[in-house]
Write a structure and sequence with these properties.
Elements lengths: L4 E7 L3 H14 L6 E2 L7 E9 L1 H11 L7 E5 L1 E5 L4 E5 L5 H16 L13 E5 L14 E5 L1 E10 L2 E11 L2
Antiparallel strand pairs: 1-3, 1-9, 2-7, 4-8, 5-6, 6-7, 9-10
Bound molecules: adenosine-2'-monophosphate (2AM).
The site of adenosine-2'-monophosphate has 7 residues, from strand 3.
Family: Belongs to the 2H phosphoesterase superfamily. ThpR family.
Pfam family, one: 2_5_RNA_ligase2
Keywords: Hydrolase, Ligase
Length: 175
């Protein structure tokens, strides 16, 4: 099926914060720890509809446009390593209610639209490193960044010439 697109909804740190996170990552993790995600690709996935047709994409966009909820502050003060998926991540030690509510709504809309959703509980995270299969020392607690989440975004994930690019399809404002 060549007319399907790999979609995900996410919140994205502002560009200056993406740059700060990349600098911190370079200071904290040795090069052999894993493959760094490009600064512009740092994001926190809310829901993953996966490969969908143009028709289903239109439905998902229509449903997303109905979401009404206030913005919220997101703190990034926790990190971890999932060896099985080879992911080193950064996330909130405590998820704000707004984040959980938004993710739950988008996941429910995706499920209702026939997109199979992971049975795993939502663990909000920003992937910093991929292919991190060996032992990785996680920095001790004490780091913290925050940013206001004022909107969420639908991205298309495209893989070409050995690189993953995320194309912004649409933003929706939070109130
Ligand atoms: P990851 O960073 O933990 O790999 C684009 O691929 C985004 O969608 C990534 O943030 C990725 O999470 C997420 N993603 C990929 N497959 C997923 C799945 N089956 N369920 C939830 N999120 C997924």
């Amino acid at each position: 099926m060549s007319d399907s697109t790999r979609l995900f909804f996410a919140v994205t740190p502002p560009e200056p914060l993406q740059q700060s996170l990349v600098k911190w990552r370079a200071d904290q993790f040795p090069a052999e720890a894993g493959r760094p995600v490009a600064a512009a690709n740092l994001h926190l996935t809310l829901a993953f509809p996966g490969e969908v047709s143009a028709e289903k994409q239109a439905t998902l966009m229509r449903l997303a446009s109905r979401i009404r909820q206030p913005g919220f502050q997101l703190t990034l003060d926790d990190a971890g390593h999932w060896p099985r998926s080879g992911v080193v991540w950064l996330g909130p030690a405590r998820s704000p209610r707004g984040l959980l509510q938004l993710a739950e709504m988008l996941r429910a809309q995706a499920a209702r639209s026939g997109c199979q959703q992971s049975p795993q509980p939502f663990h909000p995270h920003i992937t910093l490193l991929r292919n991190a299969r060996g032992k990785v020392a996680i920095p001790p607690p004490g780091f913290s960044w925050h940013f206001p989440v004022t909107h969420f975004t639908l991205y298309a994930s495209c893989f070409s010439q050995g690189r993953t690019r995320y194309q912004t399809l649409q933003h929706w404002k939070l109130d």
